Amino acid sequence: MNPRTRAFLQFGTLVLVGLLLVFVFPRAAAWAEMAAREIRYLWWLILLVALGGWLIWAGRRRPRE
Question: How much of the chain is helix, strand and coil, in % rounded to 5?
Fold first, then answer.
């Protein structure tokens, strides 16, 4: 598989997962849309995404011995 095909498949998978999440969690999608429109709530959305990223990154680290 060449890199271009692999990148296309990864992007397509990302889009499909995003659409699936919108259909599975419509209230969360509505909240995210409202947050994008209202700057007061946008900061909470950014902080939640950053927290999720940090938890994923911290969870993959090996514990100290």
Answer: 85, 0, 15
